[in-house]
């Protein structure tokens, strides 16, 4: 599991590439998809571009979280995790490609 830190200027540690996707865990809820720096900077909400095939990938994401980082579900702040390549390569995004 690789934690991703998003800084105030929208940069990330580690640096995210177009081929990367993230999992966001916040208050027991999960979002996953491609990090959208512009949305993060201007709205700071809904800053993940969700894949169109989210429903079919949800079970894999939940299994990954339960096996690798279940304790993160209890955090009171947003936790960003680098999505495993085995899952991110299956994501279908409207405005960008994960290749």
How would you sum up the global shape?
A: globular
What number is the mean pLDDT? Answer: 86
Tell me the helix content: 25-40%
Record field, number of beta strands: 6
Outline the low-pLDDT stretches.
Answer: none
How would you characterize the largest beta sheet?
4 strands, antiparallel
What percentage of the residues does DSSP assign to strands (E)? 15-25%
Instruction: Supply the helix-strand structural class.
Output: alpha+beta
Describe this structure in words.
With 99 residues, this protein is of the alpha+beta class. The protein is built from three helices and six strands, in the order ββββαβαβα. The model has no long low-confidence stretch (mean pLDDT 86). The longest helix has 15 residues, at 54-68. A four-stranded antiparallel sheet has the order 5-4-3-6. A two-stranded antiparallel sheet has the order 1-2.
